[in-house]
């Protein structure tokens, strides 16, 4: 789908122009919406992201800390407490494009 450059803010248009990107060649590939819940804990900020894109809905649990080692131990405790298996995820954009590629392959 072609994207009308009129939808872009002047700030974005300025950046694209500085990078010599032809805004008339841009297109919308899809939409990704994220809802976030945050809970401050003594050891860091616990974050739950709920993402919606294409025909997919997923969740990602993150733990934001100042010190990696302390954060890792605290996060492992949280996962263990709720019997959640740790799975290093792709980031949201990677998951979006992986799903988009899969859906496209199903229609070919």
TrEMBL record:
<protein>
    <submittedName>
        <fullName>Adenylate cyclase</fullName>
    </submittedName>
</protein>
<dbReference type="InterPro" id="IPR033469">
    <property type="entry name" value="CYTH-like_dom_sf"/>
</dbReference>
<dbReference type="InterPro" id="IPR023577">
    <property type="entry name" value="CYTH_domain"/>
</dbReference>
<feature type="domain" description="CYTH">
    <location>
        <begin position="18"/>
        <end position="97"/>
    </location>
</feature>
<dbReference type="Pfam" id="PF01928">
    <property type="entry name" value="CYTH"/>
</dbReference>
